[in-house]
């Protein structure tokens, strides 16, 4: 915790008996946060850590807007509590442009017109990153399946699927 | 504020349960956290099972596939042992929620939630799954059909934990079929579902049939009358219609926001027709 390279975030002033110290890797940086252990991860990210990329749509696991990656697998930040992050590696959309693959996802979303209102985009981009990273061989049906947990109410999905199919073809 | 605890061994878990009997067990959290948020706040601790290595993983022993209760559904779907010995379960698990939900949600959680719409339940009934239950000083094994006692109700006793699901290998059923009807293809709660295990003779007649419907009664409905109407026959439309008619009479669906009773009865009767196309 005293390591100066670590970011001390969260609400350290909070009553100590209610707060837990949680250390994890967030977008490539080791962080230590003070938060109530049952704080929802979406609230920890957005309100305590200021990472407002991940969105809350439904709060019940039905829309995918809060999709993040934990230890490389997609998870829903609205259905996790802060204490679960201890020791884990967390990636949010804020780190999308940190990798070549992530940049290709971002660029493909732009060039394919895969963003309209943008609310689903962070979750959609993380689900896209997960599938092209894990299975670049994924064909169109596999990509549709990989994005099936993310709702978009604007695009009709076609542009989004096109974008991810394009990235997968680049990754192969 | 709820304390959140992460035991890594059964001994540590039962120690917590003994001293904090009001603690709740949390596997993937995909149902529990939604329910807790809807209810009034309390201070009952959450015992997370995700760091209990013993509860996570898939092995085989004596012609039985053994799945740790806290194994995520995505691991079950991708597992070669499951795909080979009980593909029916993998097919049903693949219809739960969406990919991120399946990375979190567990088989034990789907069982203990005991929703009438639990997608893995009809397969587990047909596969004769048995459940390993452990308490601090005792263990027992219960068939799934005896464990689930009603909507959201199980025979899980206070201080007890579901540790593993035992599934007898089922390759002899060459036809393993699961279909779920929902309002959309992903992120849908079943309006009705059908699981089927069929063993055909080399001549194409049904040697053994097991059929179960989900979401059309307080518990999974296995219909021996429908099964009997298939046995010894070919999977023609006529035979499958007869099985569907028997099932229509056996189920007790409700009206809810997803569908009406009448629609569900029609689905129950019609879903077996797919078995003709599946052969």
Explain this structure to me?
The complex is a heterodimer of chains A (172) and B (279). In chain A, 32% of the residues lie in helices and 17% in strands. Residues 1-6 of chain A have low confidence and may be disordered. With 172 residues, chain A is an alpha/beta fold. Chain A folds into two domains: 7-91, Ubiquitin-like (UB roll), CATH 3.10.20; 95-171, DNA polymerase, domain 1. The relative contact order of chain A is 0.14. Chain A has helices at residues 41-48, 100-111, 121-134, 140-146, 158-171, and strands spanning 7-10, 20-26, 29-35, 67-70, 73-76, 89-91. Chain B has two domains: 55-168, Uridine Diphospho-n-acetylenolpyruvylglucosamine Reductase, domain 3; 175-278, Enolase-like, domain 1 (2-Layer Sandwich), CATH 3.30.390. Chain B has helices at 10-19, 32-38, 73-78, 80-85, 87-93, 99-104, 107-113, 121-126, 144-147, 224-230, 237-250, 261-270, 274-278; strands at residues 4-5, 24-26, 46-48, 58-61, 64-68, 130-135, 138-143, 148-150, 153-154, 161-168, 175-181, 192-200, 206-214, 221-222. In chain B, α10 (224-230) runs antiparallel to α11 (237-250) and α11 runs antiparallel to α12. In chain B, the strands form four sheets. A five-stranded antiparallel sheet of chain B has the order 4-5-10-6-7. In chain B, strands 11-12-13-14 form a four-stranded antiparallel sheet, sandwiched between helices. Chain B has a three-stranded parallel sheet with strand order 1-3-2, with no helix packed on it. In chain B, 49% of the residues are buried. Chain B is α+β, with helices and mostly antiparallel strands. In chain B, a hairpin with a 5-residue loop joins β12 and β13 (206-214). The mean pLDDT of chain B is 97. Chain B is 34% helix and 25% strand. Chain A binds chain B through residues 18, 20, 36-38, 40, 59-64, 67, 73-76, 79-81, 83-84, 86, 127, 130, 145-146, 148-151, and chain B through 1-4, 6, 29-30, 33-34, 37, 46, 48, 50, 74, 97-101, 103-104, 185-187.
């Amino acid at each position: 915790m005293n390591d100066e390279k670590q970011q001390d975030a969260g609400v350290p002033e909070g009553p100590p008996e209610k707060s837990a110290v949680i250390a994890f890797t967030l977008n490539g940086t080791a962080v230590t946060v003070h938060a109530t252990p049952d704080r929802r991860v979406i609230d920890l990210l957005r309100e305590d850590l200021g990472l407002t990329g991940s969105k809350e749509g439904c709060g019940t696991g039905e829309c995918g807007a809060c999709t993040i990656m934990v230890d490389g697998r997609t998870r829903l930040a609205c259905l996790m509590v802060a204490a679960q992050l201890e020791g884990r590696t967390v990636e949010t959309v804020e780190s999308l442009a940190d990798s070549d693959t992530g940049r290709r996802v971002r660029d493909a979303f732009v060039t394919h017109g895969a963003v309209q209102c943008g609310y689903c985009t962070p979750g959609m981009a993380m689900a896209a990153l997960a599938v092209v990273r894990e299975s670049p061989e994924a064909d169109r049906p596999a990509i549709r399946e990989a994005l099936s947990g993310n709702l978009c109410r604007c695009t009709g999905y076609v542009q989004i699927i096109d974008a991810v199919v394009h990235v997968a073809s680049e990754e192969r | 504020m709820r304390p959140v605890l992460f035991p890594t061994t059964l001994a540590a878990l039962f120690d917590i349960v003994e001293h904090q009997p009001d603690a709740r067990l949390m596997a993937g959290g995909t149902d529990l956290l939604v329910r807790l948020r809807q209810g009034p706040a309390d201070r009952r601790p959450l015992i997370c099972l995700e760091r209990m290595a013993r509860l996570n993983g898939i092995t085989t022993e004596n012609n039985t596939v053994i799945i740790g209760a806290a194994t995520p559904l995505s691991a079950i779907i991708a597992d070669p042992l499951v795909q080979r010995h009980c593909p029916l379960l993998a097919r049903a698990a693949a219809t739960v929620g969406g990919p991120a939900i399946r990375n979190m949600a567990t088989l034990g959680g789907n069982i203990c939630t005991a929703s009438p719409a639990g997608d893995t339940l009809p397969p587990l009934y047909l596969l004769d799954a048995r459940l390993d239950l452990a308490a601090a000083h005792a263990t027992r094994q219960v068939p799934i059909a005896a464990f689930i006692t009603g909507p959201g109700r199980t025979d899980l006793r206070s201080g007890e934990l579901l540790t593993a699901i035992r599934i007898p290998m089922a390759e002899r059923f060459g036809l393993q079929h699961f279909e779920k009807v929902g309002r959309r293809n992903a992120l849908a709660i079943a309006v009705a579902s059908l699981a089927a295990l069929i063993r055909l003779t080399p001549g194409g007649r049904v040697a053994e049939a097991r059929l179960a419907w989900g979401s059309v009664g307080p518990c999974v409905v296995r219909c021996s009358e429908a099964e009997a109407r298939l046995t010894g026959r070919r999977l023609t439309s006529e035979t499958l219609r007869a099985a569907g008619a028997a099932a229509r009479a056996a189920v007790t669906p409700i009206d809810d926001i997803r569908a009406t009773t009448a629609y569900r009865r029609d689905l129950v009767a019609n879903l077996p027709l797919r078995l003709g196309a599946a052969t």
